[in-house]
């Protein structure tokens, strides 16, 4: 049963929003498509002329098709477009995608991605993300490893809106689909050397080696990134803190014994030895930390990038430190196998399987002060494995479909040690010598079957219908935070639970080819975020499972392109209704050990919300050799119901007046590249400006935690020789030197800790291909 907005008002608004664009495009002959600006790779470019946009192919529906034909809101970035950004990970693309926020989880080098009002901004291991991140068909299930390095990437697709049919659970907001480069039967390689502000050094290299003529090839790519950090330490000699030290590599072996068989084995490795991420103290005057002598920067006047943290040697078993001097350590090893068999005139069978092991040691200090306020470490090991098989067919001129099944599982073990140093201000002299400890074990087994097809009813009109059914079994065991001295006496409570979840999701709609240049589509899509357990449980009540969070989305879009491929333009309107929202609340409870009152974090399905908006993107070559890209996103939303304990007094309140987090009302971007062909090659000038409005970063909209509005300006100059073998690039980011908060967290009336984005920076990159 379709769930429409009240009185159909918002759906009518969406339709009306699309009509002006349709009329405009009909008159001008333009077409709608969501994409980054792509330059032509035709003979025109080889002759020193760029007069059109290249065709963009996406796999947003699990099969290759033109972006113009895909009935979905998707932004696509090619390898060339990614290279022009001069960014290390996916955060650098956020400003160019309508209604998308990509930053880090406060206090961690982990991804916080928001799309259309749905986001995950927690590091809790048992929480499922709201936006799926998929690399070469393998799901990166935890935010800690989702800040994916972009070197040697073939294409990135950002799918907006629920993707529950073909991509499955945990895609209520959308999907970031990353496709890396494959081995080819040609000897070649690439080397890049870069240096930029904050003593940042980058070394990137790739080599492609044909092993057996036309049948077996190897590609190895790696990147090393080291930075001094852009925060200044005010307590330990004034040096830089928050630096990064990351090595990534992939080795791919591809076997193509004939034109219908393609088998690829991939090994992935990552070693991250970055600093413990610093935080900024933005504690309000009424909070405990401010009252005991550590007010936030709004009182002290300290600049946000001048901060500090507790630095000490040690580990999880140390008597008074957890090793923040060691930094955050993350080791990833993965093995993946992809096999494709094409049956001429019938279809293609694809099987993808993989295993990924992630081990993390994450010592952090959260207060922004060198005062042993709250410092902790989490050591965890996650083993993730999956296998998916699907069959894709253009069965006839009238029917296209994909069907398949998937198994996905994980095993997770974690332990945490936390020093609650702030308790010494409340009369506990052991707060910095007797830490809390906890451990947890979590397993997931998930099974699903899915299918989606497009049937052409008449020559220009096709109907879309798809569905997926998922069943999950989860088990959870936790020994909650207890003082180390208490554990030594042999007393450590344990809570265990298990649950099964099952959920069907559907997708239906149409695709209408109005004429050769204009496509129109409408879809109703469902998605869900899996139910589960709260790693932070302190009692039997909070260890109980919470239910799935669901989404029902309506989307209306138009895609057009001029016949000469000089202009593309896309507009889409959407309305999404979210139910059973998973939300945390800090609530009072009675400590089962001491019998004294305390606090715990409890996760419940606390309410419902709705989000609506418009997204538009355009690319054009208005004059020879000039490529322009424009995008705009507007969105708004509200809680229809939200019941939670707002002030921690143990009484649930009506909190529906609060704003949804990671929901900036406006995102705007303009990018232009002008190419000048000279006797010694080509010089490209690129400029970009993007704006993002303020948004809430915490569920309870805590003061001094909002992501601040910002306007970012960047520019680059790039030279390549005639053979495109050598390249020299100069670039600058955040040229207006905006200092702005990107996220924050507020800890139960105790203190606020926040993170800021990098200030103005400049860099140079040298590249050679062989």
Automatic annotation (TrEMBL):
Residues 1-33 form the signal peptide. One of its GO terms (cellular component) is cell outer membrane. PROSITE patterns: TONB_DEPENDENT_REC_3. SUPFAM superfamilies: Porins. It comes from the Bacteria. One of its GO terms (biological process) is iron ion transport. Coiled coil: none annotated. Residues 352-735 form the TonB-dependent receptor-like beta-barrel domain. It comes from Sphingobium phenoxybenzoativorans. It is found in: Cell outer membrane. Belongs to the TonB-dependent receptor family. Keywords: Cell outer membrane, Ion transport, Iron, Iron transport, Membrane, Receptor, Signal, TonB box, Transmembrane, Transmembrane beta strand, Transport. The keyword Ion transport applies. Pfam families: Plug, TonB_dep_Rec_b-barrel. It is a multi-pass membrane protein. The keyword NADP does not apply. Its main location: membrane. Residues 67-175 form the TonB-dependent receptor plug domain. InterPro entries: Beta-barrel_TonB (IPR000531), Beta-barrel_TonB_sf (IPR036942), Plug_dom (IPR012910), TonB-dep_rcpt-like (IPR039426). This is TonB-dependent receptor.
């Amino acid at each position: 049963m379709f769930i429409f907005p009240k009185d159909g008002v918002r759906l009518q608004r969406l339709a009306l929003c699309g009509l002006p664009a349709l009329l405009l495009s009909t008159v001008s002959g333009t077409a709608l498509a969501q994409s980054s600006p792509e330059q032509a790779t035709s003979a025109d470019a080889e002759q020193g002329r760029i007069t059109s946009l290249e065709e963009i192919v996406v796999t947003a529906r699990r099969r290759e098709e033109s972006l113009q034909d895909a009935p979905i809101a998707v932004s696509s970035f090619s390898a060339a477009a990614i290279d022009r950004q001069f960014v290390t990970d996916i955060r650098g693309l956020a400003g160019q995608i309508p209604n998308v926020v990509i930053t880090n989880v406060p206090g961690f080098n982990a991804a916080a991605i928001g799309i259309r009002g749905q986001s995950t901004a927690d590091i809790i291991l048992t929480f499922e993300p709201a936006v799926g991140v998929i690399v070469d068909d393998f799901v990166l299930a935890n935010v800690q490893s989702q800040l994916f390095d972009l070197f040697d990437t073939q294409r990135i697709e950002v799918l907006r809106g629920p993707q529950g049919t073909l991509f499955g659970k945990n895609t209520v907001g959308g999907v970031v689909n990353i496709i890396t480069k494959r081995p080819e039967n040609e000897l070649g390689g690439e080397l890049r050397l870069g240096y930029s502000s904050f003593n940042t050094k980058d070394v990137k290299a790739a080599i492609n080696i044909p092993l057996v003529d036309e049948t077996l090839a190897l590609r190895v790519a790696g990147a090393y990134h080291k930075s001094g950090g852009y925060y200044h330490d005010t307590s330990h000699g004034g040096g830089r803190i928050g630096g990064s030290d990351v090595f990534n590599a992939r080795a791919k072996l591809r076997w193509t014994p004939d034109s219908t068989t393609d088998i690829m084995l991939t090994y992935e490795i990552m070693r991250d030895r970055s600093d413990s991420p610093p935080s900024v103290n933005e504690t309000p005057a009424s909070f405990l930390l401010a009252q005991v002598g550590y007010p936030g920067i709004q009182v002290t006047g300290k600049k946000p990038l001048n901060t500090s943290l507790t630095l000490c040697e040690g580990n999880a078993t140390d008597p008074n430190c957890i090793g923040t001097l060691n930094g955050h350590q993350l080791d990833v090893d993965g093995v993946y196998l992809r096999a494709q068999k094409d049956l001429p005139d019938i279809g293609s069978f694809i099987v993808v399987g993989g295993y990924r092991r992630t081990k993390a040691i994450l010592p952090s200090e959260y207060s922004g002060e060198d005062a042993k306020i709250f410092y902790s470490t989490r050591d965890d090991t996650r083993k993730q494995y999956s296998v998916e098989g699907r069959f894709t067919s253009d069965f006839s001129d009238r029917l296209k479909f994909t069907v398949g099944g998937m198994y996905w599982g994980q095993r997770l073990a974690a332990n945490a040690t936390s020093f609650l140093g702030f308790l010494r201000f409340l009369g506990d002299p052991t707060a910095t010598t007797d830490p809390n400890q906890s451990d947890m074990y979590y397993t997931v087994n998930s099974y699903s079957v899915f299918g989606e097809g497009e049937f052409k009813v008449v020559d220009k009109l096709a109907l879309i219908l798809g569905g997926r059914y998922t069943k999950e079994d989860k088990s959870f065991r936790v020994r909650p935070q207890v003082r180390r001295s208490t554990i030594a006496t042999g007393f450590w409570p344990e809570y265990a639970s298990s649950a099964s979840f099952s959920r069907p999701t559907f997708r239906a709609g149409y695709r209408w080819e109005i004429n050769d240049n204009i496509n129109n589509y409408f879809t109703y899509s469902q998605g869900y975020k899996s139910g589960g357990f709260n790693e932070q449980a302190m009692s039997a009540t909070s260890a109980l499972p919470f239910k799935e969070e669901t989404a029902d989305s309506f989307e209306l879009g138009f895609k057009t392109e001029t016949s000469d491929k000089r202009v593309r333009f896309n507009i889409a309107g959407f309305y999404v209704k979210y139910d059973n929202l998973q939300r945390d609340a800090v609530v009072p409870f009675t400590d089962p050990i001491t019998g004294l009152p305390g606090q715990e974090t409890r996760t419940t399905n606390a309410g419902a919300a709705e989000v609506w908006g418009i997204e538009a993107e355009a690319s054009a070559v208005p004059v020879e050799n000039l490529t322009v890209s424009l995008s705009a996103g507007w969105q708004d939303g509200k809680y229809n119901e939200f019941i939670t304990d707002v002030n921690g007094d143990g009484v649930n309140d009506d909190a529906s007046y609060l704003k949804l987090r990671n929901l900036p009302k406006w995102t705007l971007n303009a990018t232009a590249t002008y190419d000048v062909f000279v006797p010694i090659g080509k010089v490209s000038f690129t400029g970009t400006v993007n704006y993002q409005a303020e948004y809430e970063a915490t569920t309870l909209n805590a003061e001094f935690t909002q992501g601040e509005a910002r306007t970012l300006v960047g520019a680059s100059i790039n030279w390549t020789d005639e053979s495109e073998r050598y390249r020299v690039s100069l670039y600058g980011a955040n040229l207006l030197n905006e200092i702005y908060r990107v996220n924050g967290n507020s800890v139960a009336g105790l203190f606020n800790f926040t993170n800021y984005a990098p200030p103005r920076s400049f860099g140079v990159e040298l590249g050679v291909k062989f």
